[in-house]
Amino acid sequence: MRNDAVAWSDFDAGEYWKNNYASVLPEDAEIIQWASKFLIEACGQRSGLKKAVDVGAGSNLYPALLMLPWAEQIVFTEYASPNIRWLRENLADAPGEWHWQPFWDLVAALPCYRTVGQPRRRLAAVHEIRRLSIFDLPPCTWNLGSMFFVADGMTTDVAEFESAVRSFLGALMPGSPFIMAFMEGSSGYAVRGVRFPAVRVTPRSLEALLADLPVTGASVLRTDNSIRRVRPGYDAMLLVTGFVTG
Ligand SMILES: C[S@@+](CC[C@H](N)C(=O)[O-])C[C@H]1O[C@@H](n2cnc3c(N)ncnc32)[C@H](O)[C@@H]1O
Question: What's the rounded mean pLDDT across residues 204-216?
């Protein structure tokens, strides 16, 4: 099933959030630990310099939170209108409980992150939301980027998956650090009974693709599923970090 054949307007953003991010899964905690370590090393102590993008954000704010210490601006791009609405509602600075606090707590004491006093307010101040397909991203526009579970979670077509990864990397300027996450071996996923497509990615298939992409210093990390059996439908989560060469 190709990306343009999917009923993205039926994507239930609140249900997707509930299924995946109502609490911190051990796999996400591992990804957050690795990605924050990479970004601290890649971006250094200077804060507020980067124009960041999170592509296909859906109802997941933790990739943007990972980039927050260095971002003077974070653009959230999305294609599905329910996700755009969810982002508008959930990125506003509001009083009361913040569902993303447990995610932020995992990085709050780390170098660079500890300088961000009020992450919810800061995210509200620096973000912008744009309706944009991954295939229409403007080239060479941002200098820090994330793309979590998007290229592999929007089509079953391998060529289209690879083209989406290229488009994400092409939207970043040469030298930009990036973080990308994928579901290993995903057979697709359901959100409130509606099926969405996936490409079956493996560490080996990703490494073969990376060898062909304009990136340097890339590494692929696989979550340790001995902690807990992952939920049915995929084998592990994979984090890819590196720099765009252009
Ligand atoms: C598996 S979800 C991942 C969402 C989120 N990034 C996360 O980490 O959970 C796949 C996302 O891809 C988005 N998407 C689908 N087609 C897209 C397109 N052509 N361009 C950009 N995003 C797209 C969907 O709206 C959905 O939010």
Answer: 97
